[in-house]
Design a protein that fits this description.
By secondary structure, the protein is an alpha+beta fold. The protein contains 2 helices and 8 strands; from the N terminus they run ααββββββββ. It is globular and about 40 Å long.
């Protein structure tokens, strides 16, 4: 058998395998789409989590903080509005109500990173769920964590 004939047969075999693989994938996708009861249950569970609210308390301590930005509950779950407090008196504390998968976040900002000594924390139901400490500006972006109702 010539080299060319073997190559043509290999190409046909590969095409046949691709067709079988495509058909199998299509069957799986159609099968999943046909399970509307299961998909409906998942959609309902996501809606319940997104609609659930929870409270967190932000706290910032230290010196040299020029501004504090935080998620205060406005906006969309994955695009929260950022609220700002300029020239805050420290220690600073604020309790907010967030929704569903909206991440709690508080970000102290210091213009003079050499003269700042900052700590921040996020508390949910009396338990600290995130904290950060550091001299200078908090390079990690302050305190940001996942929603406690999303997990």
């Amino acid at each position: 058998m010539s080299h060319t004939v073997r190559n043509i047969r290999n190409i046909r075999s590969v095409r046949n395998l691709r067709s079988v693989r495509t058909a199998a994938c299509a069957a799986v996708v159609l099968g999943l789409a046909g399970c509307s009861g299961t998909a409906g249950q998942v959609d309902k569970a996501v809606d319940e989590v997104v609609d659930e609210t929870y409270e967190v308390t932000y706290e910032v301590t230290g010196t040299g903080v020029d501004e504090i930005q935080f998620h205060g509950g406005g906006g969309k779950a994955m695009e929260p509005e950022i609220e700002t407090v300029k020239s805050p008196t420290l220690p600073w504390r604020k309790t907010v109500t967030l929704r569903g998968i909206m991440p709690p976040a508080v970000m102290p900002i210091a213009v003079d990173e050499n003269g700042a000594d900052i700590s921040c924390s996020i508390t949910h139901k009396g338990k600290v769920i995130k904290e950060a400490k550091g001299e200078g500006m908090l390079a990690a972006g302050g305190c940001v964590t996942v929603s406690p109702v999303a997990g």
